[in-house]
Amino acid sequence: MDVKQQVLSYLELNKGKTFSGAKLAEKIGVSRTAIWKAVKSLEEKGYKITASTNKGYSLCDDNDKLSPQSIKPYLDSDIKDSEIIVFDTIDSTNTYAKEIASQGAKEFTVVIAEEQTKGKGRLGRTFYSPHSKGIYMSIILRPEMSAKQALLITTSTAVAVSDAIDDICNISTQIKWVNDIYYNEKKLCGILTEASIDFETGGLEYAIVGIGINVSTTQNDLPDDVSQIATSIYGDKETINRSALIGKILNNLNLYVNNLGDKSILDKYRERSFLIGREINVIKSDSTTPAIATGITDNAELIVQYKNGRTETLNSGEVSVRAIK
Ligand code: BTN
User: Fold this and answer.
1) Distance between Cα 50 and ligand 1 center (Å)
2) Which residues contact residue 167 at a Cβ distance below 8 angstroms, ignoring those fewer than 6 apart?
3) Cα–Cα distance list, 79 to 74, 100, 260, 299 (Å)
4) pLDDT digit string (tens) for 260-299?
5) What span, in angstroms and rounded, lies between the C-alpha atoms of 207 and 101?
6) Ligand 1 within 6 A of CB of 214
7) What's this model's pTM, rounded to 2 decimal places?
8) How far apart are CA 264 and CA 270, in angstroms?
9) Nearest CA to ligand 1 atom 9
10) Residue 307: is it exposed, middle or buried by C-beta count within 10 angstroms (0-12/13-18/19+)?
11) pLDDT tens-place string over residues 210-226
12) Which of 32, 94, 250, 312 has the most CB atoms in a 10 Å sphere around its CB?
């Protein structure tokens, strides 16, 4: 770690506290000039640091710039050493994660960006990712499982994220099958899981779990058609410590991916369902059919019942909630 990263680590661990240049120099084992240069460079990169002549330096409590140093203090011990890569801007964290996964990146490597210029959603859609307004993050997983079971990764991620948001932000979110998180009837977060399959064994080589959360995104940040169906945790009112939320999501995810298929995760998924009991439309390439969502199977498939009484179990695809007329 260079001096700048060491100073940042120390200030992140002691956020809000003030340290003299001499104290930091002694802690890190470098000169006061090296500390001064490191602080200057961190400030130039956008870290909110107060520097007062007599007292010294402190990282402001409301500094919300993401870095490995800002996230690591929130991680459970068994994932504290995971590699966390943070970009200021990138095309898509999923694309980058896929690239490094195919080159052998370790399980639970995390890729985060403050902004994505080509954020990807499901079904070829765009995920709008304005700078510092959200959490755009991809995690590389290498669970030993067949490709058929991969749906469980998405559902476990949805529970991990929904749980973490509720805990940290004190709100109540729901999960819209299969992978969207809803808040006050609007979409707050989308999850895109991409996988590479080993064709010889039929097993999963790796999975990339991409999570996009609107944290302080406002309607002005999104195109009109998206802003009508999307929401964010705080809008422009206030914001949260994004690092704490990321930490909680990663801790939950680590727990859940080590227990994929656990009944209690699916029970939570069902409890949080946005769809069960609702009138929906089942959208297929050639048809849109009204139905009622009646349940979720143990394999995380959606059970629907059509007007003629026929039931169907869906394992992929798209459904929308029908507007009440
Ligand atoms: C959806 O709503 O259809 C899924 C959206 C997934 C967005 C996240 S943001 C981080 C990761 N990188 C991407 O390009 N997409 C996912």
Assistant:
1) 35
2) 248
3) 10, 19, 17, 27
4) 878 899 999 999 999 999 999 999 888 999 999 999 998 8
5) 9
6) no
7) 0.92
8) 10
9) 212
10) exposed
11) 999 999 998 888 988 88
12) 94
